[in-house]
Amino acid sequence: MTTLRIRLLVLAIILLGVEPLPLRAQLISPGELARPHAALEGVRQCTACHELRRPGVSPPRCLQCHELVRTRIEAGRGYHASVKDRNCGECHKDHFGREFDLVRLDTASFEHTATGFALRGAHVGVLCAACHAPTLIKAADVLAHPGGAAFLRRTMLGLPTACAGCHAADDPHGTQFRGRACEGCHGEADWAWAERFDHDHAAYRLTGLHRQVSCEGCHRAERVGGAMRVRYVGIAFASCSSCHSDPHAGAMGAQCSSCHVTDGWDRVPRAAVEARFDHSSTRFPLNGRHAAVVCAGCHGKPAPRTTTIAIRFAPGTEAATFPRPVAVDCVACHVDHHRGELRGSRAGVACEGCHTVRGWTPVTYDIARHGQTAFPLTGAHAATPCRACHVSTDQGGATLRLRLPDRECVACHRADDPHEGRFGARSCASCHVTETFRVGEFDHALARGAGCGSCHRPDDPHGGQFEGADCASCHVTETFRIAAFDHARTRFPLTGAHVRVECAACHRGERRPDGRTMVRYRPLGVECADCHGGGR
Amino acid sequence: MATEGRQIAAGVGAMPRVAAKDGAGHRAPAEGRRSVALLAVVWIATAGTLLYAGLDYYLLPLPERAYAPGHRVFAPTGVVGWTLGVAGTLFMLVGVSAYAARKRWARLSGLGRLRSWLRFHIFLCTLGPFLIVLHSSFKVRGLISIAFWSMVLVVASGVFGRYVYARIPKTIHGQFRSLQSLRERHAELVERLQEAGITLPETLSVTAGDVRAARGLLASLFLAVRYDLRRRSQRKRIRRYLETRGVDPGLREALARLADEQLQLEQQIVLLSPFQRLFRYWHTFHVPLATLMLVIALVHVAVAVLFGYMWPF
């Protein structure tokens, strides 16, 4: 029985001894440490990481070895600075065997922003290893890590955050932007798109049509610093002619901007031009009424709500002329209200023969110049207003008809003729002069032998009562009015009460067959009853 | 061989009658069976639930566990893992100390039946180790692995011990019966069967070869297993034998029971001495291993407390 008991004891010791032999090194360890920590294995080294009576690891003890992490936490940089209040063991466990992965980064859920370098734009979706490559590590302390190349392949530390840290080889600008941060113009979305660039902050601001010009229109590939590069810096822009050629061949001066703006060559701002442009530098100085005319009055009409003048060049004349209209003839701009009737006349084609830039009226034409015409103005004609002869030919009455080919008196005075045409084709001038119509020195003797009727028949108010009688028996040539008629020479001398009777009491007016009135002189009855009726 | 068996049979037959209440059958009463079933259900439910809850974690290979979502819960230092360790340890401490106290302190001897205390000991000291297995999350290393495997051995030996113990005939109070009392009972049965004109043939039960084999401990174990496996067919053969002897069917059942008890007694008499020896040896195995386990577990707890895993909540 004793031997059996001893046998059993030996069996127990063998059974129990087999297991602990290889584990003597880690008597109380809960499991083998991962390979990087293998040197810390052993019951005497527990406190290299652990603090007694505190679960998990002691961060200060971890950081005693993990110097790179410690310096970064102290500097407040990198991912670990964002989790400095947490225990290392929350993420980095151990005692799970030699092959245990001490750092297992869940790349899908890792919040890269916590590292101090947020991934945005094109950086999102880039493989970790694309940036976390040994060749891109720049931090000196990381490079100096005793782990060497193997460590550099493994570590996430030591990358620069400036663009050039990784993208120096991608920089196509050469030395053009030396000393300037990439992120001043470029975002993280796409290099080709300088999303943060604002040309307004450039030395040359883009306005007007310049804003629509593609970048390549000005920034062309050329030899910059020994290589073909798009030039961004050092482009001359002091004057327009830095880029543009002058179609005026210098005729308008060097200062394009005295007329032009960037809204278009054929657009000039009215206000600016009116304020700045010296029209006397052209062949057409603006004087008189022209000085007050807006540019668009001659130079095309601006589109609605624009402040510019639309200017069109005559094809092929850009170099020499500016702008249309360029003719100095008045008719280039003005309508000839005379409808060309003066063309070929001695006054000439030019409007300025009569008109001035001070206004259409008054004209410079005067009586003296009228005297050079075929119809000099004399007598009362000199005091007659122009319009009395040169009637208006349009409704407004602004324009006068200037050419009056018929120079006979009747051309104008037909309505004034008191002779009702009785003088036929005989010239008025045979009796009248231009001073007055009144005939002052009519020589009646010139009419002798012709009889009064030859002239005065139309004047006869008696309706043929005295046919065959001599007018001179009653009238004299001084006047038709009879000064003192001697009734005694008639068949009925006035006597008695008849002397005081009014002429018209006996000589009554009556209507003639032609509608005119006349006073009845003869024949009248001489019997009393002829007038008084006698009780009939 | 055959003569030896006869001698035992004769010896048995010579014994005086003993009271029938000291029957050799160890059938648990209905109440006892119910409590066994209840404990089994509680055991399986507890162990099953906990295993199922942590299965995803337990199935992970070691290097993966640190990053598994269940690590904070089911790791040995996790909320559930830690609780399992404490609970499992307490289960075992209570299960061992209560049973040991009941067995050793006379003062407690009147408190319940020892059988029930053993049942409770087995319940706590199998469920406890299972909780410890879960606490370890099926990974043990270092010093504590000695305690762990000790525990496994203790439990395994407990199962073995339970088997041996069950095959040692005991009085209703749990005391081992003497060979003398077994023989007396056997003689009584032989006599009663003979009164009915029945003498059981040797071929039905213990053979001379059995008696010789029972001298070795291992052989006696095999023998016991063989007896257990033959129990059912033995009963059938008894009935067939009674039939061939033309026993009245009304009496056949009662006689068969007596015959069965007689044959079982014969087997027990053969195994009594080697099994009592086995049980003593087992005891010297089961208890020291449990003690070793306890000591290392204390070291384990001390280390855990020292490193700060006093309270995980």
Task: State the main characteristics.
heterodimer, A: 536 residues, mainly alpha, two-stranded antiparallel ribbon, two-stranded antiparallel sheet, 19 helices, 20% helix, rod-shaped, B: 313 residues, disordered N terminus
Task: Describe this structure as you would to a colleague.
The complex is a heterodimer of chains A (536) and B (313). Chain A is mainly alpha-helical. Chain A is built from 19 helices and 6 strands. In chain A, strands 1-2 form a two-stranded antiparallel ribbon. In chain A, a hairpin with a 2-residue loop joins strand 1 and strand 2. The longest helix of chain A has 17 residues. About 3% of the residues of chain A have low confidence. Chain B is an all-alpha fold and 313 residues long. Chain B is 74% helix and 0% strand. Chain B contains 11 helices and no strands. Chain B is elongated. At the A-B interface, helix 1 of A face helix 3, helix 7 and helix 11 of B.
Quickly describe the structure.
The complex is a heterodimer of chains A (536) and B (313). By secondary structure, chain A is mostly helical. Helix content of chain A is 20%, strand content 4%.
Task: Describe the SSE topology.
The complex is a heterodimer of chains A (536) and B (313).
Chain A: H1 2-18, H2 46-49, H3 59-65, H4 67-74, H5 78-82, H6 128-131, H7 140-143, H8 148-154, H9 163-167, H10 215-218, E1 221-224, E2 227-230, E3 267-269, H11 270-276, H12 295-298, E4 308-310, H13 330-333, H14 367-370, H15 386-389, H16 409-413, H17 452-456, H18 503-506, E5 509-511, E6 517-519, H19 528-532
Antiparallel strand pairs in A: 1-2, 3-4, 5-6
Chain B: H1 2-14, H2 30-58, H3 62-65, H4 71-74, H5 79-104, H6 114-135, H7 143-166, H8 179-195, H9 208-213, H10 217-244, H11 249-306
